[in-house]
Write the structure tokens for this entry.
Amino acid sequence: MDKTIVKSIVLPSLVILVGGLVVLGLGWLSYVGIYLWFETTFYPFDPLSVPADLLRIIATLLMMAVIGIVYLFKVPTLVKATLLVPAMGTFLITMVLSFYTHITFVIIMISLVVIMGCVIIARFRFSWYYYLALGYATVLAIVYAWPR
């Protein structure tokens, strides 16, 4: 394999795929930690009363805000694309888990979000890294949150 292909395509792809999964996993572990703390602190005798949807939405908004703040600074494109995976992943996971009883609505909303993401990436002529991150986040979210 040519060194330029490895350096310009394979390594960035691996960074986005592995790094995005790691950051998404860390975000999930943070959410679980907050959920368990909330459960033991406020609902020790009735753990089913924990408002999981509300906590999930708040955690998603916080992750998107933190990553949005990172986008304001001069950060390499590869890092920004890698951070798109957990932001978009948590957003899509939250959407699927919030509306899992209305699966047609979920399919339409995921499609609209992905199409809007592709339009934004194309409109602002972002790197192909962002397409990979958007597609990867979508696949991870569907695999994790799709009703079985």
